[in-house]
TrEMBL record:
GO biological process, one term: retrograde transport, endosome to Golgi
InterPro entries reported for this sequence: Got1, Vesicle_transpt_Got1/SFT2
Topology term for the membrane: Multi-pass membrane protein
Name of this chain's protein: Golgi transport 1Ba
Pfam families: Got1
Organism of this sequence: Takifugu rubripes (Japanese pufferfish)
Cellular component GO terms held in the UniProt record: cytosol; endoplasmic reticulum; Golgi membrane
Superkingdom: Eukaryota
Family: Belongs to the GOT1 family.
Residues in coiled coil: none
Amino acid sequence: MISLTDSQKIGMGLTGFGVFFLFFGMILFFDKALLAIGNILFVAGLAFVIGLERTFRFFFQKHKMKATGFFLGGVCVVLIGWPIVGVVLEVYGFFLLFRGFFPVVVGFIRRVPVLGSLLNLPFISSYVDKVGESNTMV
């Protein structure tokens, strides 16, 4: 079993609450306040989980500057008060930032009993394989 430090446990909680508030804010027709709270909690939780220095190095790598700009720019746009535009920018930046992790996530989900059988259906499997392959190219 993986052992977590206290700050990582706090980070997992903050990240979870951040995802909850982001999801809830989108369900409630892009509520500005919920989306802003979700963004702040998500980024703070990520910093707690992997540490401030590693978070900074992850976001500000030279080849990820475009993705970081879109993600953090989307956060700022949400905080300014344009939630729909901000969320679109954030989602694009998120996929650019984390595209290297998608094949790992797909491989993990394929080993989960119910979800794995869904991903192995013919019409879904071909799409998931295509997305996984295109995301490995940087």
